[in-house]
Amino acid sequence: MVTKADPEKKRKKSQVPFRLNVLFLVVFFLFSVLILRLGVLQIVNGEEKRLESEAVEEVIARKEAPRGKLLDSNFREVVGNEPFFSLTYTKTVDTKAKDTMRIAEWLADRLGVTEDQIKKITVRDKKDYFIAKQDVTKMIDERLNKKEKKLSDKDQYIALVNKITEEEINSLSDKDIKILAYKRAMDTGYAYSAQRIKTNLNNEEVSVISENLGDLPGVDIMADSKRIYPFGGSTIFGQVKQIPKSKTDYFMSMGYDRSDQVGISGLEDQYENVLRGTKEKSVYLTNPKTGATIGEPKTIPGQRGKDIVLTLDMELQFQLEKILEEEILRAKPLGGNDLLDSAYIVMMNPKTGEIKGIAGKKYENGEFRNDAYGALFDAYEMGSTVKGATVLTGLQQGLIHMGEVIVDKPFTKNKMNKSSWRTMGPITDLQALMMSSNVYMFNIMDRMIGPEHWTQTYAKARYSFNQYGLGVKTGIDFPNEAVGYEGKPPEGESGTLYDLGIGQFDTYTTMQLVQYVSTIANDGYRVKPHLVREIREPATDAEGHGKLLKRFEPEILNKIDVEQKYIERVQDGFWQVMHGARGTAKGYFDDPAKYHNPAGKTGTAQRIIRHPRTGNIVEKHNLTLVGYAPFENPEIAFAVVVPEGTPQNGNQKINKYIGQRALEAYWNLKEKYGENASAVNGNLEKDNEEDSAE
Fold this sequence. Notes:
Blueprint: H1 6-44, H2 46-54, E1 57-63, E2 70-71, E3 77-89, H3 97-111, H4 115-119, H5 123-132, H6 136-143, H7 146-149, H8 153-162, H9 166-170, H10 174-188, E4 195-198, H11 203-211, E5 219-228, E6 240-242, H12 248-253, E7 261-263, H13 266-270, H14 272-275, E8 280-286, E9 293-300, E10 307-310, H15 314-331, E11 342-348, E12 355-364, E13 367-370, H16 374-377, E14 379-380, H17 387-396, E15 406-408, E16 411-413, E17 416-418, E18 425-427, H18 429-435, H19 438-448, H20 454-466, H21 495-501, E19 508-509, H22 510-521, E20 525-527, E21 532-536, E22 548-551, E23 556-559, H23 564-579, H24 592-595, E24 599-610, E25 617-629, E26 636-645, H25 654-671
Parallel strand pairs: 2-10
Antiparallel strand pairs: 1-8, 2-3, 3-4, 3-5, 6-7, 8-9, 10-21, 11-12, 11-26, 12-13, 14-19, 15-18, 16-17, 20-23, 21-22, 24-25, 25-26
């Protein structure tokens, strides 16, 4: 018997097959898609995926990132980057010669070449290009003899190159030369190394290349930069160039590519690892068996190098350079002094070692060039400026006592006759510094001579001088600092020992001289000088400063082993030099508003030389000056060196004029920062008897 529920059951039963059919259809569709995908992978991409599965090597191509900037102590950019676009070419191991030839032809037709590109083409390049355009097999068959044909492929090619005539080279057309310019640059690079083949692309060139990159495998446009100097260049900053051949192995071991730009001198060299940017990386998968490149490379972005904040104040630096130029020109006409052609100055905070300014100028062929390097590398006999070290050595070793009176009169010993610049009579150690007595120093050095071999006496004196930074490296953060030259005395000769005590035997650099006077100003603590104050992350905007990564704190190299009362004694003597009644710099630094109560020491080292042009024997003076201010609490020390001045007509004052103007410039900039400081341009002062001291 049929119930009322039967129709409902029949309806539900009829829906089950329909749902199963839909399910089967969906499953069939999914399986079809899967089979289709497997087919694509197996048939269409099978070879690539097979190679990829075998690829066990990653090859990384790198592109240089912009270098970090150099900023002065007030965060003004002194070395920056000017952006431009470069055309690069990256070869792979499976790049064929015909590929580079085709691309070179395309580039030559659309971009043209620069004069610089053409200048780089050599005769060998032209021979290689001539051969590349020919049927090489046919050339070998026609041009090589039986013996040459038995050579290796490499030697066969060399023999073939040697048979290319000058006439054949000259047959290359202008178009050939343009193509060769690009092909040469493309062939120069190494596999997976982005090689610059043209720089400073204009907008039109960038557009043309960008539209055709798909047809130019290996070609790319790279954001590039070159160093710019908003305040003008300086030898201290250094240069950036391609890796020198002599250092290729070193830089390659550090992860550089042969085509990279690196700092080769100055601060660019010293802080290469800081200024160097993090390269953009392109990671290629390669098949270890075939060398084939698989797929497109994966790119990892790079980052600009870190910024360096210098201790230098560029306004002060500018003024120091100007002062040197003006004072050299002012001194030269006094007696037709054509040998006085250079001057150097270093200004340093004696407590921190921060170099506030370092300038050098050399006058050549009627114009000046920057020679700040000379303050670090050129060493001279510095004259009486070193007498502070001599007096301290005498006090430390008990050779003299404070206030001891020695008669300044001609010093005669072992057939030698030496004297001061004038006879001074009975004088104390303070007066000896104030008036710059040579005889007082001769007595100190004479008392140093003991029973030991004479060479040990020299070593003992030099060891004492070394404690102040004289004759040793100062430790400045700059490559290849010079240490000066130790004079070589004749066997058994003690006369040069006396000369050592008055700064006329061993030679020192201007940087050593400023460290020496800073050590005295700093109560005997010798501080390491430095040109870099901070290292920072790249700034994210034009006005901001990047995150501080490192600040260079003052570093004490040593404390001289001298009682404090002796150091204060020499400090008093240095003050007397500039303010005492008979000080050798009296009248130059008395104005407290301009100079802030400085102390210091003048120096003159006499030299007898042969004039480089006339051949005549002439007397020249190295004119030097060291000092610091204020006397009570020093915050700036300085050293001035003017080599080979003429001892006549007053131009031996140039060291004092430079010191005057440098101190005034420093204090003006401190008191009125941002405004141009006025310079001391006064008239030549009347000579006084102390101007010819030492």
